[in-house]
Every structure is written in structure tokens, then in C-alpha cells.
């Protein structure tokens, strides 16, 4: 960890008057007797230039620095789960605790043995103990659990509004999905990969053969090597992806994107026949022609 991770440790308050009011009441008539001492909604009522600078992500259980959410995203991209992230935080906190404890002990021993510091044994006071790792009055080694980190990531990615478009709030998940829809281009390249799928096997009982859930992956890139589209293949034939490839071209039409002019592939003959079929069926279903007759007949 590059630096310490800070947390917001809040309290939950209880209203004695409401607790008294609930006595003898039916369940439907009872009022809530406790509430958090913090409110994430107050940030939305502040000017944006102030709320954007608030460094914490407030949740139902206190809060955590937003930079930690970014670290979670990096860990997930590298194949690490929330359990590994929680262990890394615990290890970093434990290491820092031990370093601070060693520094404190060394400082106390130095003062004990230095000449002139304690002129008399009667004047030497017993130094205060450093304390334990989870001592809330001293080090306070609070470490978020795997479950808490998962909730934080889901809240930040799927529930917290980050953008307003036409008076509608967009979450980060919705924004990234829309951004990916714009990752099209003038030149598309199709690539079928079967190597990684060979090692994927489903679990099986003793004596039974482990089956392959997928045969391969088919990915479409643009000229900037961005992933425009990707699907799993249950067989080795690209024809099974025909209907879904139609939806890919429909994305160009509905979003008013420029239709790609070239399709690059290693398997030119089979892919050409598949594209000819898809584009003709697309025209029959929608009345929109995405090709020139002479180019299709010529095999372009």
C-alpha cells in the first residue's frame, strides 16, 4: 500500500423518546428508534465543486477512502478477489503496527539508558505501554472485511450516481456500458480463440469425465485494438453467432454510428460467407442495406 487508508468511524444514535413511544404499539405502528450519525445525502445537497473533493465513500457502515475503491478495481482486473484485497490490507496494517511498535520500544530504551535523562531512579517513570493492534484508543487497527469491500465496490459501481444526462442520473456501470457502445470503428477485426477454452472444465463426480462448457471465444476489435464485441462459442462454427452479430450491426444503426468499411480476419473464406449471409438477412429484416451489391458479389 502506498499510503495509509483512512476510514470514517461513525456512531449509531438511539432516540429514547421513540423507544418509549413504541411500547405497546403494533409492529406496523412502531417508529424507527436508531439512526446513523452521518448522512451521505448531505453531500448531494452541497455544491458540486465541494462534494467532489470529499475523499470518502459513505456507506451504511461508516465509510472508506475512495482511493481504496480504485485499488479494488485494479485487484479485480488482475484476477484477485475481495478476500485477497482484505488480506493485503490486514498485512499492510500489521506491518505498520509492528514498525511503529519497534520505533516506540527503541525510543523508550534509548531514553532509559541515555545519561542525564533520568538522574535518579525515583524520577524515572514507567513508560506507557504501546498497546495492542485493535486498541481503539491507540493504534486502532480496523480492517475492512471481504464482505464490506464487496458491498463498497457494488455500491460505488452500480448505485452511486456519477453523471447527470438529460436530468437522469447515471451510475458508473451505466456510463461505462454506454462508453463501450461507442467503441466502434471504421475497421473491424474478428478473431476466434480456442486455446484458453481447452483448459476450462466443469467439476465432475469421481469416475465421471469433466466436460467443456465452452469451445472458444470470438472477439471483435476495432482499428485501435479496443474490444467492440465478444461472445462465447459452444461449437467451433461461427454460424452459431449469426443472430448475435446482427445485433452488433444493429448497434451501429440505432446509435447512428458510421458503419465499418472493412472486416479483417484470418479465416477469410468462412467469415466472408457468414458476413454475406448476415448482411442480406439484416436487410430483409430491417430494410437497411449495409453493403454494396458489387462488393458482396466480389467477395469484399
How would you portray this structure in words?
The structure is a single chain. This protein is an alpha+beta fold and 300 residues long. It has 2 domains: 7-158, no CATH class; 185-298, Nucleotidyltransferase, domain 5, CATH 3.30.420. 40% of the residues lie in helices and 16% in strands. The protein contains 10 helices and 11 strands. The chain has helices spanning 16-21, 41-44, 48-51, 66-77, 82-113, 146-159, 172-181, 242-254, 268-286, 293-298; strands spanning 7-8, 12-14, 34-36, 56-58, 63-65, 161-165, 168-171, 187-193, 216-222, 227-233, 262-265. It has a 4-stranded mixed β-sheet with strand order 10-9-8-11, with no helix packed on it. Strand 9 (216-222) and strand 10 form a beta hairpin. Helix 8 packs across helix 9 (268-286). The longest helix is centred in the first third of the chain and has 32 residues, at 82-113. It is elongated and about 95 Å long.
Order of strands side by side in the largest beta sheet?
10-9-8-11
Order of helices and strands: EEHEHHEEHHHEEHEEEHEHH
Terminal Cα span:
53 Å
Mean pLDDT rating: 76
Helix content: 40-55%
Main sheet attributes: strand count, strand direction, barrel closure: 4 strands, mixed
How many DSSP H or I helices? 10
Helical/strand content category: alpha+beta
How many distinct folded domains? 2
What's the gyration radius in Å?
30 Å
Q: pLDDT under 50 segments (min length 5)?
A: none
Q: What is the tally of beta strands?
A: 11
User: So what's the overall shape?
Assistant: elongated
**Beta-strand share of residues:** 15-25%
Amino acid at each position: 500500500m502506498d499510503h495509509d487508508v483512512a476510514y470514517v468511524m461513525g456512531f449509531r444514535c438511539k432516540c429514547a423518546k421513540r423507544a418509549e413511544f413504541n411500547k405497546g404499539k403494533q409492529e406496523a405502528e412502531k417508529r424507527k428508534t436508531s439512526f446513523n450519525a452521518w448522512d451521505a445525502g448531505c453531500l448531494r445537497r452541497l455544491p458540486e465543486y465541494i462534494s467532489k473533493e470529499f475523499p470518502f465513500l459513505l456507506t451504511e457502515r461508516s465509510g472508506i477512502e475512495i482511493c481504496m475503491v480504485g485499488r479494488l478495481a485494479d485487484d479485480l482486473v488482475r484476477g484477485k478477489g475481495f478476500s485477497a484485497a482484505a488480506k493485503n490490507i490486514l498485512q499492510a496494517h500489521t506491518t505498520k503496527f509492528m514498525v511503529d511498535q519497534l520505533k516506540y520500544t527503541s525510543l523508550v530504551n534509548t531514553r532509559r539508558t541515555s545519561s542525564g535523562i533520568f538522574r535518579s531512579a525515583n524520577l524515572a517513570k514507567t513508560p506507557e505501554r504501546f498497546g495492542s493492534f485493535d486498541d481503539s484508543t491507540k493504534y486502532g487497527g480496523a480492517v475492512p472485511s471481504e464482505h464490506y469491500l464487496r458491498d463498497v465496490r457494488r455500491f460505488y459501481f452500480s448505485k452511486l450516481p456519477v453523471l447527470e444526462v438529460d436530468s437522469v442520473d447515471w451510475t458508473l456501470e451505466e456510463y461505462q456500458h454506454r462508453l463501450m457502445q461507442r467503441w466502434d470503428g471504421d475497421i473491424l477485426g474478428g478473431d476466434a480463440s480456442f486455446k484458453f477454452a481447452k483448459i476450462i472444465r466443469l467439476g465432475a463426480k469421481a469416475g465421471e469425465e469433466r466436460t467443456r462448457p465452452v469451445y472458444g471465444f470470438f472477439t471483435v476489435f476495432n482499428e485501435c485494438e479496443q474490444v467492440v464485441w465478444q461472445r462465447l462459442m459452444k461449437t467451433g462454427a461461427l454460424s452459431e453467432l449469426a443472430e448475435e452479430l446482427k445485433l452488433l450491426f444493429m448497434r451501429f444503426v440505432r446509435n447512428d454510428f458510421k458503419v465499418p468499411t472493412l472486416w479483417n480476419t484470418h479465416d477469410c473464406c468462412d467469415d466472408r460467407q457468414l458476413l454475406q449471409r448476415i448482411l442480406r438477412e439484416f436487410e430483409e429484416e430491417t430494410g437497411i442495406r449495409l453493403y454494396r451489391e458489387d462488393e458482396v458479389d466480389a467477395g469484399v
